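Field reference: sequence -> structure
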Amino acid sequence: MHAGQTAIIICTLYGLKLSGAAWRVHLAQTLHDLGYKSSYTDPDVWYKVAMKADGFQYYDYVLVYVDDILVLSHQSNEMMNAL
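Structure field:
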């Protein structure tokens, strides 16, 4: 319908002042729903107790910096798919 036409974007959601805060609240709720807890010393470090197939208990970590996410887990692909 509008193929080949130029679009001028006046305002984007990414540039809004509250978009960062909305992203942070949404991500925090999602991680909480997945069973993660925020660290007391750094709220951008999330963790939860996990268990390997052989019964070994360990911690999964999710580190967040602005819009970058680092997942430390034996099942990191499953975690990223859940996000």
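Note: The chain has a mean pLDDT of 85.
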